[in-house]
Amino acid sequence: MKFICGAAAVAYLGLGGVALNACGSDARPAPTPMEGTALPNGGRGSGDGGAGAGQATSAGANVGGNGVVGGAGVAPSGGQAASAGAGGGGAGGTGGSVTGGAPPTEEATFIPDPSWTCGRPGGIVAPVRGRLVLSAELRLGEAHDVGATPFGKRRVQDVTGGSFEGDNLKGTVLTGGLELELELSNGSAELEQLHVLRTDDGTLIYLRSCGVAPVAEQTVRIVPRFEVSKTSGLAWLSDADLVGTRRIDEATGTAKLEIYDVENVAVMDPKVTLRDPAGEPQQRWDCTVAQGSQGATVFTETVTLGASLSVGQGNEGSRNIIPITGGKVTGRIQGEVLPGGADYQLVGGSTQLDARYTLAASDGELILVRNCGAFGALVPVFEARAAGPYSFLNQGAFLSSDPGSASGGVSITVYERK
Description:
Blueprint: H1 7-10, E1 35-36, H2 58-63, E2 67-68, E3 109-111, E4 131-149, E5 152-166, E6 169-173, E7 177-183, E8 189-199, E9 204-213, E10 220-227, H3 236-239, E11 242-249, E12 254-261, E13 271-273, E14 294-305, E15 309-314, E16 317-331, E17 335-337, E18 342-347, E19 352-361, E20 366-374, E21 379-384, E22 398-400, E23 404-406, E24 409-417
Parallel strand pairs: 3-13
Antiparallel strand pairs: 1-2, 4-5, 4-12, 5-6, 5-7, 6-8, 7-8, 8-9, 9-10, 10-11, 11-12, 14-16, 14-24, 15-16, 16-17, 16-18, 17-19, 18-19, 19-20, 20-21, 22-24, 23-24
């Protein structure tokens, strides 16, 4: 996948630190073998992956049976077409598609890796099989490359605004959203989106999406999670069964989202099963919980904040979003807090903070931060370049202070955990 190269505030933030780097190569490693089920009306292919020779015809690409992609993406040999005597055994015959075993991605069901527990573990169905309910265009700002972290190649894309429209709704995408892109070592991709939308009548909507994409696929399949006040006429968005697509338009510097209602769409063949590389760390969807006490100080952040945005009481609780507009970092890391992201907190009897942002060290290194948890139990998780000077942050052995009052925002200190 190719990515585009005050007192009220104190109740707000659970921050940590963030970092970014430079674009990597477009070269892709050999894809992980992936099973694909052919389109209907085909025969059954056989043979060993990686041995196919010859050029499949368009007929052969559509009539092959069940096949397995070879390690380098070359189709198995020896396939036999059901409706035509030729065309099943070339480089693309046996798998049921011109990619040699992989089903057509637009129509396929994606089965995400079990580690990416953000929605629809049984399969993300093809959005085009559902009903379009919302389209959005996100204006993309600066892209920050953290580099190769323990999870893969991390890239953070700023969103500077945008617009959306759909079923009886229309409005704007607020500045400060984040697109957190991760390319795994096997070439597949995972995406997290954090955005705030405002309708023309002033209703605020929180959107957090997860997404996946197979090797070399430009379109990310997303599972959007909307949070809207239960008193709003748009509360149906929080309950709907939705999937969608996200595509980058490099010519216009935008990201296009299309979201579909798939309530009546069943999980069906063809399927693409995605697996994270064996033995490598996996990013988490939920917050990290840790025990221990505060040890030595690592660094302190003074974070400036924007005006609080209240989504209201939704299915998850009362959502309050406080934008992050900048700040400074001192201690073992010196630099700045980049504008973008927010503390996406759930307010209630036990307020849960979930701050997402990026730190830019004075030497140019970038660190992605998630500081999450209840007051008195904040656990920061960092993502820094594995071969960089701040790789010690990747160990996950830290605790955070509660946010304290500071000029224009809050102050947070990160400690070693003991």
